[in-house]
Amino acid sequence: RRAAAHLDSLGRLLAVAGWPAEAVTARRIRDDLLDRAPAEAVLPRTLRLQRRVGRSRTLDRLTRGIGTLSTADARAAGVSGPAARAGGDVPARYRRWLADAVDDVRRLDDVRRLDDGALLEPTAPGPMASPAPTALLDPTAQESPRGRWDAGRPPSVALVGLLPRLLEGTELAAARLVVAGLDPDPDELGASKREFAGG
């Protein structure tokens, strides 16, 4: 699911950047991942997307130097995940999404041991064919697509907190790319506001 989320973020960025064909490709791979396609069916297409988008000179020129965020500044602002690990501008972040998506797809068919010693085997293909073990659904156990999950402060809250500084003095077109390059999740922000209002 994390690979699907990275490809979803990438698809939004590519649409904002004016590359609808590759945005559709990213979304189709995302849909296949959500339908639990095996790694062997998805990995070649994900690698092709990584090469095509990652090496695009046009996309690099369009996004280079905007929304620059060092790893140290990201961590100081409470940001984790791809935005912090990328340590750079919008191209650094979309290349990080691509690399993380490829890594996650490569691990799709892994058989691993859970903490209780039980084997976790790949699930059968098909939408919602077999539910994932509860251990894998614990948001604090693994990094979510936008960073380490904290019930009191979802990762998108920290991403949105960066926007005033990153958007200062940018033109509208560049501002749209900066926001798409961070891709804060409105659902996380809404959940955070509800928890604050309820608490």
From TrEMBL:
Ranges for region Disordered: 118-153
InterPro entries registered for this protein in UniProt: NiFe-Hase_large (IPR029014)
Protein name per its UniProtKB record: Uncharacterized protein
Organism: Streptomyces halstedii
